[in-house]
């Protein structure tokens, strides 16, 4: 597989990933309505959602700018190919850190959700056992 095909393949996957991330963030905005959260819980949810959205805008803008810069590279030039390789590794590190951050934010909301709905760890495990067949 030559360099041009590799770069095209990565760019097509990046385009899909960007679209899915944006769609996912938009769908998360309607989660309280879909699940019928109380007003108090919806307020807490939107607080966490706003924090997550700020991080998402930052990381997705960096992701998009890398995607746009990658359109103008010459795959025959070894310096451009090296640039793409190193920038892709940096973007993958950003991608990982973005998902770590969103995981911790979502976990924080999950803990508060359990607190507001008075869900204990034991009752949560019992509910999960029903969903997972032995």
Task: Please describe what this structure looks like.
The structure is a single chain. This protein is an all-alpha fold and 134 residues long. The chain has one domain. 84% of the residues lie in helices and 0% in strands. It is built from five helices and no strands. It has helices at 3-28, 31-35, 39-70, 78-116, 121-131. 4% of the residues are buried. The mean pLDDT is 87.
The low-pLDDT segments are: none
Q: Using the CA coordinates, give the radius of gyration.
A: 20 Å
How widely separated are the two ends?
45 Å
Sheet with most strands: none
Strand elements, count? 0
Beta-strand residue fraction:
under 5%
Helix content: over 70%
Shape: elongated
Descriptors:
134 residues, mainly alpha, 5 helices
Describe the structure concisely for a colleague:
The chain is mainly alpha-helical and 134 residues long. It has 5 helices and no strands.
Mind sketching the topology for me?
Layout: H1 3-28, H2 31-35, H3 39-70, H4 78-116, H5 121-131
